[in-house]
Amino acid sequence: MSLTTAHSVVAPSANSKRIAGAIVVGYALISIVPLLWIFATSFKTPPDSIAYPPKIVFQPSLEGYCNLFTTRTRQTPEYINALGPATGLCDATVRKRNMVIAGPSNFLPRFVNSLIIAFGSTFCAVFLGTLSAYGFSRFKVPLADDLLFFILSTRFMPPIAVAIPIYLMYRELGLSDTALGMILLYTAVNVSLAVWLLKGFIDEIPREYEEAAMIDGYTRLQAFWRTVLPQATTGIAATAIFCLIFAWNEYAFAALLTSGTAQTAPPFIPTIIGEGGQDWPAVAAGTTIFLVPILVFTILLRKQLLRGITFGAVRK
Amino acid sequence: MLDRTADNVARATPEPLARRIRGISDKGLAWLFISPTILLLLAINIFPLFWAIYLSFTNYRANRPNEAVKNLGLANYRRILGDQDIWIAMQTTAHFVFWTILLQTVIGFTLAWLIDRKFRGHAFWTTIILVPMMLSPAVVGNFWRFLYEPQIGLFAYVVAFFTGIAPTHVQMLSNVELAPWAIIIVDTWMWTPYVMLICLAGLRSIPEYIYEAAEVDRASNWRQFWSITLPMALPFIMLAVLFRGIENFKMFDMVNLLTGGGPGSTTEVASITLKRQAFESWRTGYSSAFAIILFVAVFGLANIYVKALNKVKQR
Hints:
The complex is a heterodimer.
Chain A: H1 14-41, H2 46-49, H3 63-69, E1 70-74, H4 77-82, H5 89-95, E2 99-104, H6 107-138, H7 144-153, H8 159-173, H9 179-203, H10 208-215, H11 220-231, H12 233-249, H13 252-257, H14 265-268, E3 273-274, E4 277-278, H15 280-301, H16 305-309
Helix pairs in contact in A: 1-15, 3-15, 6-9, 6-12, 7-9, 9-12, 10-11
Chain B: H1 2-12, H2 14-20, H3 26-55, H4 75-82, H5 84-115, H6 122-134, H7 137-148, H8 154-163, H9 179-204, H10 208-216, H11 221-249, H12 253-258, H13 270-280, H14 284-314
């Protein structure tokens, strides 16, 4: 045995590695097919999207994206011919189907709602979570374990069970179908995750830094601000992304508590319909636009993923 | 280890240092930092919970807010426990939770065990496998409706291609027998990566010297797997099962969009029943009682499970 391989008698053999690799790659490829199909469908025309057998090779079209962002009305060919030249790509595309663009669809406002509510609640949850996590990490809080468990236990409740009294409460307070109401609710749900994750991150920062800062004359608050926060940035960023993903993906509360002005994208996307049923290319286009930010975040979060999904229970 | 040293340092330095700290006392600061979170949770989680408990003893209906509210005592609870439909929903939920967890654990652990061989490119492929679990269950569930569509759907086509069944007959969502499996397949597709990731952490936590010792003792690979790999990864597997169990017990979004509980009520898991009772039949009092029962059930089961988990960890 050569020296380079001698360090381990238990390393898997080259052959077993090859077989393992083949199986895992096979699984990965199969599991990614539905996502590739969504992506491909978003560039199909409606007839292509429901063709049999399903089309793998097709002429790409932006019709799905045009339909996603507009509402259209059917017109006679004479009417369309009488119009001037098409004003844009989408205009030209829908005219081929004897339609004219009547106006913008609700997708953009719903998407903006998603952005406002996700970012607003993430900011609040991380702000509150950082303070609480620091409190639990550094001070002797009476009943700390019970309080931490209480914070986590709010996550055990089925969302629909929470939604019933929230629905009534918001109706009384005038918070139904408002962005503020949704931000408050998502903050409450996310703050449990934020406290648990951030407590883990802050526990890992040695106390000596603050002690040193306080010997130098900083108050506790200044020490927190100048030494702990800068060291916790990675943890705070990872926590923020997890909160953002939750708020972005959330459906149950959004579907039950919002209906119009504050509706987010997840309850809206399934309602996109065309003539005679669901407009699948438009749905796929909406889904693609909705999923892309999450894909980016997943790649950014790779290393912290495990910690986030287990509430900090497992750290690598 | 390091944590403990830090603790000792902190304990060893108090008095002279504490006197130098100006402004708010540590105790005051601790409460200042923690109370906003507690207040928010009291307002958005605990107050509504008590409201729901109150409502569960009444015949209140949210669509008739001006009607007189009658106190029913425990009648709602008694009716739920005797309600055939509720028991069917609980069975549907149990079927869903059992099969999704079984499939996800077996596939997830196997994948983790294979990935742990560290073949070339394993990090890249792991990231690819992880993607489905980060996506919105609602948006993805909605899209699986398209894949399941008989004839035009990709899933139906692939099944038809391999089995020779006419693709119009692959009716995953409208067939009473197949619909429960349709939601199990999507949930497994989505959450197997979750179990895999936790199992992978478990496998990587096993120190190599244990295997080296086993190798010296000439333990077979089979024996090593059953006496080292599996027992040492068990707390991690159980943690994954705990998280998935709670999540799937609460499952709403994906099922609501895929089948909406149908056909009939074959895929009506507990959360869907709750939604139908609360927001379609508007039996607010009755559904609040059901919500409380569900909450107590999740809470109780999770507590028992955590105790078992701790026992395994201590071994």
